[in-house]
Structure formats: C-alpha cells, structure tokens
Amino acid sequence: xxxxxxxxxxxxxxxxxxxxxxxxxxxxxxxxxxxxxxxxxxxxxxxxxxxxxxxxxxxxxxxxxxxxxxxxxxxxxxxxxxxxxxxxxxxxxxxxxxxxxxxxxxxxxxxxxxxxxxxxxxxxxxxxxxxxxxxxxxxxxxxxxxxxxxxxxxxxxxxxxxxxxxxxxxxxxxxxxxxxxxxxxxxxxxxxxxxxxxxxxxxxxxxxxxxxxxxxxxxxxxxxxxxxxxxxxxxxxxxxxxxxxxxxxxxxxxxxxxxxxxxxxxxxxxxxxxxxxxxxxxxxxxxxxxxxxxxxxxxxxxxxxxxxxxxxxxxxxxxxxxxxxxxxxxxxxxxxxxxxxxxxxxxxxxxxxxxxxxxxx
Amino acid sequence: xxxxxxxxxxxxxxxxxxxxxxxxxxxxxxxxxxxxxxxxxxxxxxxxxxxxxxxxxxxxxxxxxxxxxxxxxxxxxxxxxxxxxxxxxxxxxxxxxxxxxxxxxxxxxxxxxxxxxxxxxxxxxxxxxxxxxxxxxxxxxxxxxxxxxxxxxxxxxxxxxxxxxxxxxxxxxxxxxxxxxxxxxxxxxxxxxxxxxxxxxxxxxxxxxxxxxxxxxxxxxxxxxxxxxxxxxxxxxxxxxxxxxxxxxxxxxxxxxxxxxxxxxxxxxxxxxxxxxxxxxxxxxxxxxxxxxxxxxxxxxxxxxxxxxxxxxxxxxxxxxxxxx
Lengths: 361, 325
Known about the structure:
The complex is a heterodimer. By secondary structure, chain A is α/β, with parallel strands linked by helices. Chain A folds into 2 domains: about 25-105 and about 220-280 and about 290-360, D-Maltodextrin-Binding Protein, domain 2, CATH 3.40.190; about 110-215, D-Maltodextrin-Binding Protein, domain 2 (3-Layer(aba) Sandwich), CATH 3.40.190.10. Chain A is about 40% helix and about 15% strand. In chain A, the strands form 2 sheets. In chain A, strands 2-1-3-10-4 form a 5-stranded mixed β-sheet, sandwiched between helices. Chain A has a 5-stranded mixed β-sheet with strand order 7-6-8-5-9, with no helix packed on it. In chain A, helix 7 links the parallel strand 6 and strand 7. In chain A, helix 10 (about 240-260) packs across helix 14. Chain A is globular. Chain B is mainly α. Helices cover about 75% and strands about 0% of the residues of chain B. Chain B has 14 helices and no strands. Chains A and B meet through helix 5 and strand 7 of A and helix 6, helix 9 and helix 13 of B.
C-alpha cells in the first residue's frame, strides 16, 4: 500500500512538472512547401536559434513531398503553412477558407529552361507543340498562366481536347524528363537551375527564361493559415488567440530570415545541412549537398532581399504586388472572380512588426 | 414480384413501402430545389427534415426490397440496390448543400455529373491512355506471359523447383510499390505503366494457372494414360480445361490490379494525360469535381472490364460444376 502511494505521488509530480514545462510553449505546426532545403532557411534558423521559443512557441516544421500544403493546413494537421499565391487564391475560390498573413519572398524564382539547341527563342511563339515539364500540386500555375497569356491550351486544362502544349508532370528530379522527354522544364532559380547545370547543361548550353520577365510575376513563398486558426479565441488552450500566435510566428520567422540572409555560410552549415538528407543534393557534377545548398541560399537571399524587405518591411505583402498577381490570374482565367476581402489579413503582420499596412509608400 | 390481389395485406404493405420511398425522396428533392442557389447554411429544422426524409426512404426501401426477394429477372431484381444508390446520392447532395461544404473539399453529386459531362472528351482521351495503352496492353502481356511460364513450369520439374517459389513470394508483395522505380527506369510515357501492370498481373496468373494445370484428378490422369495419350494430348484434353477456371480467377483479379497499377503508376510521372495524371493534378488544385468524374470513368470501365472477363469465363467454362443449375 505504502509503496504504491509513494509511486503515485511521484507519478503525479512528474506529470505535473512535465505539463507545466509544456504549458510555457504553444505547440505550432508549420507546413513547409517542399522538402527541407535552404528555401526554408529562415524557419530552420528561427527554430534552432530559439527565435520561436523566445516568442513562446514550440514550432514543428513539417516537410512536404508533392502534396499541397493547403490540404494539410485545411485539414488541421498543420496550423500554418507556406505556399505560393496562385495556389492560395485558387483554393480560396473553391471555398477553402485560407488566409494570407505574411509575404516572405518578394520576387518570383520560377523559370523555364530549354536547351539552346532546341531553338526556343521566344516562349510564346516557339512553345506550340512542345512538351513542358512541371510539378503538380499547385506548383504548375505559373506555367499555366504563361500558356494562357500566350493563347496556348495545355494538357493541364481539363477542357482542352487538343492541347497546343503537353504538360508533363514529374516528381522533383528534372533529370527524369529533361532533356529527353520535354523541351522545356520548370526550374526554380534556387534549385533546379543548378541541378540541370550539374547534369551537364550549364549556362552555356541552356537558356533560362525567368517567368517574371515574361510578365508572369506571381508571388511565391508566403505564410498562410485558415480563418479557423485566426479566429480561435484560445489557441490550443494556450490562452493566446489565434491572431497572437500568428503574429508571434511571423515575428520569429522574420528574425530567422534576417539572420539567415546575413549569415549564409553559417546557416547552411549549422541549420540547413543537419536537417536535410538526400533532398538537399544537387545533381550530377554538382551533387554535393553543401555546395548546392550554399548556392541555393544565395539565390534565396535574392528573393527575400527585394522589394519591401529592402525598405525594412520584411514579410509585408505589398498591396500593388498582390493586385498584380490577382489581375494576372483573372486575366488568364485561372481565377473567375476577385478573391474576397478576408483572403489577406494584415493584422498579424502589423502586430508582429509594429507597423501599419496603410503607411506603406 | 409477388403477384398479389389489390386488397391483400401484401399489396398494402408494398403500397406503404413505395409511398414512404416517394415521400422521402420528395422531401429530400424539395429541400435541394429550395437550397439550389443558397449560400447560407440550412437551419437546424431543415437539417432534421433531411434526416427524416432519409430515414423514411430507408424504411420504405427496406419494405420494398422484401418484394424482390424471389425476383429472377436481373434488371428488375436490381431495383432495391438502385434505390439505395439513388438515396445515398440524393442525401449526399442535400447534406452538402445544407452544410455548405465548399466544392474544393467535397463537390455535390450534381456538380460532379455536370463536370463529367463538360469534360467528357478529355476524360475519354485520358481513359484511352490509361485503360487501353497502359492497363490493357500491360494486362495482355502480363497474362499471356503468365500462362506461358505456367505451362513451362508445369512441364519441367526443375523450373517448378527453381522458379515457382519466387513467383509465390512475388505474387504476395505489393508490386505497385515498384512504380516509382519503374517510372524512373522506363520513362514517363505509357510504356512504364504498361510494364508495372504487366508485372502486377503476371504473378497471380502464373500461380493460378500452375495450380490449375497440376491439380488434376489422378483418376483422370490414369484414364489418359490408359488411352495412351501423349503429352500434348494430355494438355489439350485434360490439363488446360482443368486450368481454365483457375486462369479466369486470376484474369478477373488481374483486371482490378491492372487498373490500380495504371492509375497509381501515373502518380509518379506522366506524359500529360491519363486518368491518374488528371486525378493527381486536379486533387492538388482542389478540382475535386474533376477528380470524382475521373474516378467515375475509371470505375465504370473497371466494372465493365471485369464483367467482360466474367462473361468470357461463363462462355468458356460453362461445363464447370459451379455453373451447373
């Protein structure tokens, strides 16, 4: 009897101390858009250097394969996620109540790459009858917008019986399709462009078409959540509202990003390479993970350090940029109506940064 | 149907059953019509009404189903099952509308049907690639190779000892797991999926055919020997007919495996068409009306294919004990 009571007291004590230790930190799941790589350096830094913890958050960073981060966040498996604007807006139009709360990258890194020998000089005129490799799960929209802008139908459009362009889906390794199966392949400035170079098709052998230069400037990595999370009065019983949690997440993420961009070598060495396995490697002659991620970090820094960020407004969604993305998607018929006002919520960002969105000039 | 006099209790019971079905459906359809263009959630009373309509139809269908117990006509006998399907679809439509579930999560059945009609040309082209080029070609290659190998294995004991154990092992692992490897090896065109399908279908066919060829009644073998039948004659008149029911079992199983292999294979890289490609790309962009349309097309084709093989089986093995009336 006595022995047991001692045991129970100890057990209750242990549980209570565990619970109180947990209580201090709010558990948050952040769904990343892709496998771990330097594209998410800011979040890794914020986690490992304790920026999240300083905000009272215990953040778990969830990697993604080729599933849509919106599905994960919508289902509640993650509270926040990172994705691209077209993905977010189309989901919103189909009734998924997702909300944009911070714009981390101010520039687009989406390109199409073609061999110089394939004689593609002008995308719009030379793309007809060609095959284009894209990633599925909402990552195909920039390419779709380009096809539409050039008045070309593609096999991604379920209403086009005789498409001008064949879009080929491939998981994440461009060598699967390029250059044998497709003449053009989607490539991010910070990842696949270097992988393709590693396969023996470097800058002297390929043309890299930045979609931003073709008038397709769609915003990329952003932080979003759902209306359910934002309107939560008591986020997971933490006593914080959903908005407060969002603001803290944004503040810590921006701290993380600023640190990562300022200390790129250390970021790659200490915070990126330890969390990523095979997916951090490049391809062919540029397969080394450290080299590839160092290069990726430098390219990512260019996307982060642009526009509003350079004026001290990191994470801010510039209204004009947002409107431009919306207009482009509407013109190309990817959106059929303007997104509702609730699609963007500046509240958490304003609370995080102590600025008012209306003051942006 | 039970022949019954207009005033008999059975007739009254039937009438009551049909009445409940009609009223139940009327309630559900009335709600759907009223809620066609609404963007608000229905009130609790209306949600209860849907529940009542559903219950009424279930009870009515249960009564109606009793009338068909002794029906032999295949189409008429399907009535209760058809009522169940209709009920599920109509109730789903009513509930999705009542709760205003966004189409990006679950589209209403009516929306799926409208989309199916709208994108039918593209889906048919997708189906051609997935079903004819990938599933059918792979199926034919896999099953003919399977039968061929089984013939050899049943004839030569060293093959039975050396090869068959592996066939048994392979037939019980999920070959679909090989899909990413094969897509990488063979490429993203339809051939890679045909290879996946062929491998998936191959092993069950080998195992079943082998069993059919070897599990021959010793008495029949003795009879063949007493006729001084040669090896070929033995196969022609005894082993092959004996194997047919086994082979057809594997072939029926193979139709399902082939559809799965072809569709799942496309998830790992596709050349811009195919049902699996369509499902994957549209699921990623919340176009679930198209996803469901593609699923319907795949299901209809899958069922038709299975039944075609089942029909062939009945034609070719009509002598078998399981078909004797």
